[in-house]
Structure formats: C-alpha cells, structure tokens
Amino acid sequence: MIHSFHVCPWWLARALDNPIRRLIHNPEKILGGYIKPGQTVLDLGCGSGTFTIAMAKMVGEGGKVIAVDIQDENAPDG
Fold this sequence. Notes:
Layout: H1 13-16, H2 19-24, H3 27-31, E1 40-44, H4 50-59, E2 64-68
C-alpha cells in the first residue's frame, strides 16, 4: 500500500502566522494552564513559531523552549 501525505508548503507559513489566527488559536489561552515560569517545554512541529514565541514568554528567562520542525524550504510541496 502506498501512503501519500501533503504538508503545508513552506512558502505559505506566513499565512499561518497572523493576528487573526492568534485570536482564534490564542496560545496563552490554550497553553496557559500548562506552562509555568522556569519550565522546559517542547514544541514539536513548530512551523513558523507562533506558539513557540508565546511559550518562551510563558517560561520566562529561567525556562527553555525547544522547537523542532522537520520541513525546510527544500521540502516538496506535496
């Protein structure tokens, strides 16, 4: 069996990082009850970093955010 999958092309990433998305998918509301100052958190599939930046603010200077995304500019568009 052949599996195919499609990912969002890298050049559309900016469309995901906009003020309207942050209103609908507010990182502070979604993650605020789970992330505390000083923690180390992991953001898998971070994309353009919309949630990563919010996480960094939540953990503060004493914390750490590790963000990983395997897709690069050279990835096929699907």
